[in-house]
Amino acid sequence: MSGTTARKSFVHNSDDLVSTSSSTTNSIAASPEDTPRQSPSSTSLSSLDSGSELQLKSRNGKLIDTYGNEFQLPDFTIKQIRDAIPAHCFQRSAAKGLGYVARDIASLAATFYLFHTYLTPENVPSVPLRGLLWGVYTFVQGLFGTGLWVLAHECGHQSFSPSKTLNDTVGWICHSALLVPYFSWKISHGKHHKATGHLERDMVFVPKTREEYASKAGYYAHELSELMEETPIATAGTMIGQQLVGWLWYISMNVTGHNHHERQPEGRGKGKRNGFAGGVNHFNPSSPLYEAKDAKLILLSDLGLALTAAMIITVGRTFGWANVAVWYILPYLWVNHWLVAITFLQHTDPTLPHYEPESWNFARGAAATIDREFGFIGRHLFHGIIETHVLHHYVSTIPFYNADEATEAIKPVMGQHYRSNVEGGPIGFLKSMWRSARMCHWVEPCEGVEGEQKGVLFFRNRNGLGVPPQKMVSPVVSNSA
Fold first, then answer.
1. Paired sense of beta strands 353-355 and 456-460, if any
2. Residues contacting 22, CB < 8 A, separation 6+
3. Structural contact between residues 466 and 67, judged by C-beta atoms closer than 8 angstroms
4. Residue 196: its pLDDT value, please?
5. Quick check: pTM over 0.90?
6. Burial class (CB in 10 A: 0-12, 13-18, 19+), 32
7. How high is the pLDDT of residue 407?
């Protein structure tokens, strides 16, 4: 049957799986370090090794991540996490929070003033050079804009200050200026924190199961282990699309969020699906992402977007749309790029598990995220959102300027379950985007596991990287008259 012909995948449980003996080379041996990740000597996807050791591990009934590292379920409690954090780390300062907002707004304003004043035809007569420098402007403004985005994110978590009124006021203003529906996002993002790693309730970058991936590609689930490698150009195309429009797709169609809206308690999820015209978005008060009590907040979010859009239109009519594209739209796309990249890499990695409902709890889900390193930009312009995300999922009300100390405090409690990948700094961060895109295609159970471990799923891929996908028995379909 042609791969272009749409075919419905069959759902199998782990008892339908048989071991695979593939001659395809597979990657990266297990790391001896406490944090499960790739071997430092094998960071390139082209550094492939014999897959025999990984295949042996995948047949022994243990939980095995994509690299071949054995995984143990977290056994610590939230109380242990909170008790380990010094009391002063929970303290929030309105003055300090407002100071950071003022700094980021001043940085945006100063950058605009300098470029607008000095980057003129008189000072820089070369059109190509002037265009290149304006390109630098859009990039720099995107960095400062992302920092402001993160501070509004702090407001949404109430870690900005002790005052909820101040938090929501500052958050609404800053996010609205960046065309983010503040309260709408705040509500759905809170649900993400309550269900991180939960395959049926999480709200962002929920991976496809093997059956879902196969069905979308037009194959049966048992055929995935036979598929040819995805071409690098196809991977690159997917990544470019994700980085350009991923945020817009998310807020307008709930792309990467869960698709179990029929469980919405007020019944507003019936017949609603993610996707274009599916009725699931961050703008409509009747969206199944929200409850009736949220309607005023959703409309207030929409008002913020309308006011910003009106200002942009006014500036465009006054100064020209080419100027608006450079002054606002391109920096806005840079902000969206960083937002998507950061979130993707916080929750997508070959070491991370995802959980079926029966195997999930909050402590396990919060551990299913990873810290990375982005150098000066990450720690100072992005306010540490990349470097301290694990802590943030356990206690989201700790302000970012106390998060490094709190992270160090919880590491002994989490032990091997604290995950970080800081190799290579900013370059390593960018390489991780490619690695995760190539290695993290879908999630499936590990072979031979029993009990609640059946509900712990890890990434597998069609590219012959890491632990291979299990080979499934082809279903026997009887022909009835």
1. antiparallel
2. 51, 55, 225, 464, 468, 471
3. yes
4. 98
5. no
6. exposed
7. 98
Residue with tokens 């989490």: 414
pLDDT (tens digit per residue) in 12-61:
333 333 333 333 333 333 332 334 444 333 333 333 344 444 444 444 58
448: tokens are: 């031979």
Cβ atoms of 60 and 132 closer than 8 Å: no
Residue 235, Cβ density class (10 Å: 0-12 exposed, 13-18 middle, ≥19 buried): middle
Q: pLDDT tens digits for 272-312?
A: 999 988 999 999 999 999 999 999 999 999 999 999 999 99
Give yes or no for a contact between 69 and 416, defined as CB atoms under 8 angstroms apart: no
CA pseudo-torsion sign 303, 305, 307, 309? negative
Tokens of 149: 């985005």
Task: Tell me the residue length of the chain.
Answer: 481
Residue 127 identity: V
At 50, the amino acid letter reads: S
Give me the mean pLDDT over the 396-410 stretch.
98
The neighbour count for residue 291, using CB atoms within 10 Å, is 13
